[in-house]
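Re-run requested by the PI after the first attempt was lost when the workstation crashed. Everything re-entered from the original request form. Ligand of interest: 48F.
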Amino acid sequence: MENGETMTLDEQVITKAIIRRFTEKWLDNLDLDVAVVGGGPSGLVAAYYLASRGKKVALFERKLSIGGGLWGGGMMLNEIVVQDEGKQILDELGIATALFQPGYFTADAVETTTTLASQACRAGAKFFNLMSVEDVIIRRSNGPASTKVVGLVVNWTAVEMARLHVDPLTIRTQYTIDATGHATELMHIIERKSGSKLLTETGGVVGEKSLWADVAEQTTLKNTREAFPGVYVAGMAANATFGSHRMGPIFGGMLLSGKKAAELIIDRLENT
Ligand code: 48F
């Protein structure tokens, strides 16, 4: 505005700006390289690495806030613990850590959550919070061998919470990451509805075992892999799917798992 004129705010413009920009963002993300379901530590790290490598990635989070179990540290004491390898990821993302004793570093849970989310956004990942993934789209092109998840079915969390009878909409995606945490929601849906076996030893979700930090941290990485054609599991969903332990408020495995899921998918996208 010139000559000290003040602008009169027009509520119609504010409303149009939000509707148009959100619609543009959504339309632009209906066909993805990778859909990340769940905005906890593993999903955020996966989104960051995928977007950093130029992949078209969107993250769907049921809640208003991004961050999953990160905010609360352990029992609402908002500090997290990571090991050497996890610290390297925090270093790369510019998140401060403090040595507690050799092999154990702490980080502020709020700084970790907000910086992971910010870095993923800045790298180009698009976030759709307040949306729940309630189903998947599976296609068979050449018989059961080529059965693959090719899309997601999404609805507003508010619809889910209010139990309104409102049909969802869909997203097409080449790959999906189930980063839904302990509930491993997508794998349960696929197990129930696909009519095919998961890539686990039982053919279904094996289930989470009780808390054992050391073993759980190691197996999280091993279990971060494709669990159904087109769908990779990361974070606690990986251990729940393949039947390993939970680990409590140590987060190195979550961060490394997100990175591994991203790397595996980048390899598939670039080499197949
Ligand atoms: O639980 P969560 O933080 O998953 P994570 O990345 O990390 C686990 C740790 O927080 C902690 C732990 C390790 O130290 O044991 O628990 O494996 O985040 C999962 C996110 O997914 C969202 C949910 O709201 C949460 O923020 N979510 C779950 N199901 C859906 C979903 C769904 N169907 N659609 C959209 N979001």
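Saved to the shared folder this time. The mean pLDDT is 96.
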